[in-house]
Amino acid sequence: MQDAILTIGHGTVDDLDDLPAFLATIRRGHAASPELVAEVRRRYEAIGGRSPLNDICRDVTRLLGERLGLRAAYAGRMWAPKAVDVLTELGAIGVTRVVVVPLAQHSAPLYVETVRAAALAAKDAGDAPIEVVGGGNWGQEPLLTSALAAALTEAIGRVPETLRGTTRIVMSAHSLPLAVVRAGDPYEREVRESASAVAKAVGARMLPHQVIFQSQGMSGGEWLGPDVRTVLDGLATEGVAHVLFAPIGFLADHVEVLYDLDIEARRWAEERGMSYSRTTSLNASEALVLAVAAVARRALA
């Protein structure tokens, strides 16, 4: 049996001209309106014209493979490189089993199932069969908790002493449609448990904090909250002077962090008389690679 590691992330475009097709994929084949495409393009352009997410995921994958001594490849759930194509390439060089490590700690089973479906599609197309192995959610992996706590501790240290008594920490994760949560998805509970674990790991330096859910869909409907603006309105009413965002639901910088928080949430906070700061994302740091490697080793075992 020849093993390989397959990391899988949400995925994003490297070329903004691919946005219409990317958005249609996210919307399950329904084309996005020209207005929606233009708005999303504007957001990408505001962070420099390109998300760093794919590059970060590739770097994490390369470092993970080096640490484990195994071939490692990256796939995107919503965009290229698609899992079926990556599996075909791995099968062609003799890989018979892939250990899936989702770069989405609170939605891991969904990402693993994406790879399992891709493996079936590759087999149906005549490729050699590949066994897919993957675990569950890993939002409370101790090494991940430690890495997030270290980033938050460092960010707290950057808050001026004069502001710490009127600072609120906002720990955020991506929102989900409420229908998904009501159907029994444990996402909200697991995000809140992860936030509690991080706060406990920070220890005595931890400041007042709360959990929010950001980046709700642009097409309407009911989404898991509270959202950023609602929370900022409440904090301003309470007399909070500084808001420190800790996007613990995200492992890396991308448009939901670099635009939704660093540009949009910052502007909303300042409009309400509050200053803004944010924890540094883990990205391809050694701390994240160690956490991902721990997840991979459990799956390998």
Largest beta-sheet characterization: 4 strands, parallel
Number of beta-strand segments: 8
- What share of residues is helical? 40-55%
How far apart, in Å, are the first and last alpha carbons?
14 Å
**CATH structural architecture of the largest domain:** 3-Layer(aba) Sandwich
What would the principal axes of the Cα set say about the shape? globular
Strand order of the largest sheet: 2-1-3-4
In DSSP terms (H or I, runs of 4 or more residues), the helix count works out at 13
Count of domains = 2
Q: Return residue spans where pLDDT drops below 50 for at least 5 consecutive residues.
A: none
Classify the beta-strand content into a percent band.
15-25%
Mean pLDDT: 97
Structural class: alpha/beta
Remind me, CATH topology of the largest domain? Answer: Rossmann fold
Order of helices and strands: EHHHEHEHEHHEHHEHEHHEH
Instruction: State the name of the first-level CATH class of the largest domain.
Output: Alpha Beta
Give the radius of gyration: 20 Å
Describe the model:
This protein has 2 domains: about 5-135, 3-Layer(aba) Sandwich (Rossmann fold), CATH 3.40.50; about 140-280, 3-Layer(aba) Sandwich (Rossmann fold). It is about 50% helix and about 15% strand. It is built from 13 helices and 8 strands. The protein has helices at about 20-25, 35-45, 55-70, 85-90, 110-125, 140-160, 160-165, 180, 185-200, 230-240, 255-260, 260-270, 285-300; strands at about 5-10, 70-75, 95-100, 130-135, 165-175, 210-215, 240-245, 275-280. The strands form 2 sheets. The protein has a 4-stranded parallel β-sheet with strand order 2-1-3-4, sandwiched between helices. Helix 5 (about 110-125) links the parallel strand 3 (about 95-100) and strand 4. Helix 6 packs across helix 9 (about 185-200). The mean pLDDT is about 95.
